[in-house]
What we know:
Keywords: Chromophore, FAD, Flavoprotein. Belongs to the DNA photolyase class-1 family. InterPro entries: Crypto/Photolyase_FAD-like_sf, Crypto/Photolyase_N_sf, Cryptochr/Photolyase_FAD-bd, Cryptochrome/DNA_photolyase_1, Cryptochrome_pln, DNA_photolyase_1_CS_C, DNA_photolyase_N, Rossmann-like_a/b/a_fold. It comes from Rehmannia glutinosa. The protein is mostly helical. Among the domains are: 5-153 and 201-211, HUPs (Rossmann fold, 3-Layer(aba) Sandwich); 336-495, DNA Cyclobutane Dipyrimidine Photolyase, subunit A, domain 3 (Orthogonal Bundle). Helices cover 49% and strands 5% of the residues. It is built from 28 helices and six strands. Strands 1, 2, 3, 4, 5 and 6 form a six-stranded parallel sheet that branches. Strand 1 (5-11), helix 1 (21-29) and strand 2 form a beta-alpha-beta unit. 48% of the residues are buried. Residues 256, 264-268, 271-272, 310-311, 313-314, 317, 376, 379-380, 383, 401, 405, 407-409, 412-413, 415-417, 420, 593, 596-597 line the site of flavin-adenine dinucleotide.
Amino acid sequence: xxxxxxxxxxxxxxxxxxxxxxxxxxxxxxxxxxxxxxxxxxxxxxxxxxxxxxxxxxxxxxxxxxxxxxxxxxxxxxxxxxxxxxxxxxxxxxxxxxxxxxxxxxxxxxxxxxxxxxxxxxxxxxxxxxxxxxxxxxxxxxxxxxxxxxxxxxxxxxxxxxxxxxxxxxxxxxxxxxxxxxxxxxxxxxxxxxxxxxxxxxxxxxxxxxxxxxxxxxxxxxxxxxxxxxxxxxxxxxxxxxxxxxxxxxxxxxxxxxxxxxxxxxxxxxxxxxxxxxxxxxxxxxxxxxxxxxxxxxxxxxxxxxxxxxxxxxxxxxxxxxxxxxxxxxxxxxxxxxxxxxxxxxxxxxxxxxxxxxxxxxxxxxxxxxxxxxxxxxxxxxxxxxxxxxxxxxxxxxxxxxxxxxxxxxxxxxxxxxxxxxxxxxxxxxxxxxxxxxxxxxxxxxxxxxxxxxxxxxxxxxxxxxxxxxxxxxxxxxxxxxxxxxxxxxxxxxxxxxxxxxxxxxxxxxxxxxxxxxxxxxxxxxxxxxxxxxxxxxxxxxxxxxxxxxxxxxxxxxxxxxxxxxxxxxxxxxxxxxxxxxxxxxxxxxxxxxxxxxxxxxxxxxxxxxxxxxxxxxxxxxxxxxxxxxxxxxxxxxxxxxxxxxxxxxxxxxxxxxxxxxxxxxxxxxxxx
Length: 673
Ligand SMILES: Cc1cc2nc3c(=O)[nH]c(=O)nc-3n(C[C@H](O)[C@H](O)[C@H](O)COP(=O)(O)OP(=O)(O)OC[C@H]3O[C@@H](n4cnc5c(N)ncnc54)[C@H](O)[C@@H]3O)c2cc1C
């Protein structure tokens, strides 16, 4: 440890005082200069959206005040290059050391083809975000200049390069990953907040927060509303977390099933910007879990377990993106690359504007637009509709979420979209189609959520609220709904969407078979592009990571040697085989967030996947409500029992026969998955 040195503390997404390893280390070592460098050029296509920038701005103000109170002012810098800004700081204060906490986003300057239309639409072009690669290269350059650089894990329970299976391969299913993580030895280091900071000597120009450009004039009025509902900043994060522990955690398992109101912790934006230490969150909830277990409080224990699983999903998102760094643009299961997406910008627009004609989807999209926030279940419903009903490329939806969510977080966003798109071995099956109408009656049985966000449907009777297109004209008239005029007719018919998805899957399988056959015969020359290189070389990460010490930040190696070409085809196939095998051997494999993310499934229902998925899981008349019970083929009391166990006590309000019919249909559909 270097004592009495001057350090630069490079803040990024670790905007807190407490349990901040980089800050703690610099405070121990002597004088310090805390800096935050805003370099829009380096954000590239992942330049944050309005609400996310608003949050960042408020958090920085908060952190600035706190650091000032401790003795060292946070210097804000707007720069063209992070490296040059750091070098300027180093020379201005005579620093000999730079410390920072790791980020894990690893996005390569490569294939942006999927985004092309989206970017054209938005008038965006340019660079690619490269936090992890960028950090690594900055570190190398600083070290070359004789600067001591130390980086720390301030954002995760486990570094993504610490958790591997017995064959030292990266896990590709959440359950296996999380089981392993929970059984790993953990270093229990708590970094107490420094009680005093000694500021570095020397002068660095501090950019006023307004001049950083995080919020432009036209955004201010919309942003003002955000301040009424949210209080960014590390000490507010702390308050929110304390409130959760004291009052809401106990009933988390039950409450989180409601889509309206504050039914979950709402901690995600704090966690994204590192205003809350995930270690602290884990530790406190784990303690609650132990206490509730001792007290035989099963509700509390289940709630704590589920909450820890949610935290695990956040960890897993970093893990997958680190170990499979192509996941922001390609699915983990490569079959999806043969899927015939429908590049339909009119549909994309209707979805964004909440004008699809499906009330629950539209309510979700309007809430997102108005507030920057939607409940996890609504995220699943709108994204599922996007991919399965509209067959729009999931990457577009992922980017739109990135642009609009208050808690926009690339890794969680990617995992969320891949989960619902059939791209993960333990995610939703590609075949699965959840009718928004049925989802509506399940998760918004009284239609309150829809009425809140779609004022044009405010007077629709509950019976018709989730499928106004079926309502008699007299009902529509008395509710003031003129379909196609003040509320759209469905942009796609459910039966048609189902047929198209079935066709698209058939085409995908055919394309995949042709491509595999061509590869096996050696007739198809492998195009040596980044896409192939990344997937293959990064599949086995542990041995390939570049690092200097066990604590160091690692970067997956990207070998692009000519020798690699020989093995490319075989390795690629092997990797996909492995992913599928992981899934098929899945007696123990459950959907990664069956209790958290999904709208209907349970881990056990995964095992009940039938052979005739297409015809059974997407039944002809899933939308019609007039179906009697042609789907009973999959129902079994055993499955039903387990399903009820997991989805639990939630009773659908079923005041009339139609609702009951929908409920039955929903149950049967769920069993089929
Ligand atoms: C399509 C899609 C896109 C998503 N995009 C994002 C995103 O951009 N940013 C984001 O933070 N989350 C995203 N999620 C995950 C999840 O919806 C949110 O983390 C959650 O709704 C945040 O609310 P909360 O803090 O009240 O969660 P809680 O239920 O209280 O969970 C506690 C914490 O666990 C983590 N967590 C919970 N669920 C997940 C999950 N499925 N994946 C990763 N972490 C999870 C979050 O950090 C969350 O704050 C996405 C999910 C889907 C299906």
